[in-house]
Amino acid sequence: MLAAVVADSHDNVPAIERAVEVIAQRGAQVLFHAGDFVAPFAAKAWAGFGGPVTAVFGNNDGERAGLRKVIPDLHDGPRLFEAAGRRVLLSHREEDLTEDLLAQVDLVVTGHTHRSEIGKRGEAVFVNPGEVGGWLTGRRTLALVNLETLAVELVEL
Fold first, then answer.
1. pTM of the predicted model, to two decimals?
2. Rounded CA separation 115/137 (Å)
3. For 130, phi and psi rounded to 5 degrees?
4. Which of 26, 38, 99, 138 is the most buried (most CB within 10 A)?
5. Which segments of the chain have a pLDDT < 70?
6. pLDDT at 48 (0 to 100)
7. Cα gap 109→89, rounded to integer Å
8. DSSP letters of 68-99?
9. Strands 124-129 and 107-109
10. In CATH, which superfamily holds the domain spanning 2-156?
């Protein structure tokens, strides 16, 4: 199963629409969003993905009730869940993760820094996909994760 991993879209609807297009072209079946949708109108663009969206709130997500109406599987992080037999830890900020949580998972996904990073945290694969919005760094990126092999590809939009 291929997972699209995104963060920090910050209301940039054209960038979100482009990300959804790329994700569909690449055949991702699930989407993990590590926070900072910002407003419900932007979250609606992610709903166009058509598959399951699992997400956490970011520090700029103010209208929580409205966001939850659009993305029902949106919760406070850190969030531990299973996808395709893998234990996934999803959080907006890496600073919110504990060693105990990290020891329980195969894949860690964060956002917040707007900088992409692929690496390890303990035994877990670590992915910060950077920012879809492109406001801070000028780069619009997302990651694709093969949940069977945990291979990660960073994609420029």
1. 0.97
2. 8
3. 80, -155
4. 38
5. none
6. 85
7. 6
8. HHH-TTEE-SSEEEEETTEEEEE-S-GGG--H
9. parallel
10. Metallo-dependent phosphatases (3.60.21.10)
Rounded to whole angstroms, the Cα distance separating 57 from 7 reads 10
> Using an 8 Å Cβ cutoff, are 54 and 78 in contact?
no
What is the rounded distance in angstroms from the CA atom of residue 57 to the CA atom of residue 64?
8
The strand pairing partners of 118, in sequence order, are 127
The per-residue pLDDT for 35 is 98
Indicate the helix (H) or strand (E) that contains 24: helix 13-26
Strands 152-156 and 141-146: antiparallel
Cα atoms in the 13 Å half-sphere on the side-chain side of 70: 20
Which position has the token pair 């850190």? 78
The pLDDT value recorded for residue 47 is 82
Give the DSSP letter of residue 51: S
Tens-digit pLDDT profile for residues 63-94: 999 999 999 999 999 999 999 999 999 999 99
Structure tokens at 81: 């869940």
The reported pLDDT for the residue numbered 64 is 97
Contact yes or no for 152/130 (Cβ under 8 A) = no
